[in-house]
Amino acid sequence: MTLRLVTDKTAASPTLPRFPSVVALIEQIRPVLPFYALHPARFRAAADRFLNEFPGTPMYAVKANPSLPVVDQIYEAGIRHFDTASLAEIELIQGRFSDATCHFMAPVRLPGAAAKAAQEYGIKDFVVDSDQELDKLLREAGGKGLRIFVRIATPLGGAILELSSKFGTKPDHGAKLLRRVVEAGATPALTFHVGSQCLSPFTYAQAVEMARRAAVAADVQIAALDVGGGFPSNYPGNDVPPHHWYFDTIRESLSTFPLMPGGELLCEPGRALCAEGSTLITRVILNKGEALFLNDGSYGNMDELCQPGWTAEYVRKVYWLDANGRAHERTGAPRPFRIYGPTCDTVDVLPKPMMLPGDIQFDDFIVFENAGAYTAACRTQFNGLFSDDWAIIE
Fold first, then answer.
1. Cα end-to-end distance, the chain, whole Å
2. pLDDT digit string (tens) for 105-163?
3. Buried/exposed 88-113: b ≥16 CB within 10 Å, e otherwise
């Protein structure tokens, strides 16, 4: 069975097949290509954490997983604000959800993107971290009516994947940009991003302090603070603190931040809203003893496992089918296997061995839990090995 999604992003999602469990899905579908199983209750639990406990407005970072079934789940879980990083993401969200609010939170945009976003889609929030990008934004979209966030670089450390070496500016230059924003008639705001899969809540306090320095130096009233993303998901291999530690740290750090009365606090969770809601089902297509070839790899859903410094893993189980088509979990003693993808490229290999049951065989299914973030978002069509098959797990 192969379910292909419609390409019209404004159309309703096709009715996805439903199964009582991932095991039942494997028994009935026996997928040849990688298959995505969605867990609505997990999406709701993740959204509830931010909607009920974060002291501000959560925006889903669409880049973490823009797949239609996933954004539908996040919307149905109650999220109405979206961190969009391109016109395509804005078009996806606004064309799909009439009451959604998009925020263009990328610090660099393609020429003409800001003009179209502001004029055709009514986008009010933009981010800059340089004079050149601010000049371009003001030329294209003007200043009045916009809320312009100046992005501050944060101290490195605390997150597995840092982001400040590419984006963000120092507080003193941030102050100059804030004054320029005010002079242009726009509303001044501040933002930062501590990096992806941040394992230290204190990193947010350090980042808020960096933003505070920029605000004080600029001597302007700050209308909004966006504390970015980086909120982690629970993966094996990572010591993840409770989510409320992050929210409490942010709340406490705001006590000294010069946010104007009625000012808005925002955040951009991506991984934290979508990772736990998806399970990835893969299949062993070749067993060479110490090497396993899967129907998925670095050109598919495993790009993040190949990132330098990435230490997290996905929860995984292995199932085999008996002669009657019933699935059973492999329970053999684990041993390391080299994991190759299905393409003809030799770089399609995971950088470190994966511990799996030693009795794993050809045609077994490897199920990866918490695989909703930066999996489907980063897959390619290399060698024509692209899959877009989904189901709901009730």
1. 19
2. 999 999 999 999 999 999 999 999 999 999 999 999 999 999 999 999 998 788 998 88
3. ebbbbbbebbeebbbbbbbbebeeeb
The last residue of a domain, from among 252, 274, 296: 274
Specify whether 132 is located in the same domain as 259.
yes
Q: Are 298 and 379 found together in one domain? A: yes
Give me the percent of the chain exceeding a pLDDT of 90. 90
Supply the mean pLDDT for the chain. 94
Whether residue 212 has pLDDT greater than 70: yes
Q: Examine the domain organization and report whether 264 and 308 are in the same domain.
A: no
250 backbone dihedrals φ, ψ, rounded to 5°: -65, -45
For residue 70, what are the domain limits?
A: 41-274
Domain's final residue, options 274, 302, 324: 274
Phi, psi values for residue 58, rounded to 5°: -85, 135
- Number of domains present in the structure of the chain: 2
**Contact of 283 with 295, CB cutoff 8 Å:** yes
Instruction: Read off the pLDDT band of 13 (50, 70, 90).
Output: low
Averaged pLDDT, 360-370: 97
Evaluate whether residue 11 is within a structural domain: no
Is pTM beyond 0.70? Reply is yes
Tokens, residue 154:
């944060």
- Whether 94 and 187 map to the same domain: the answer is yes
Residue 1 lies in a domain: no
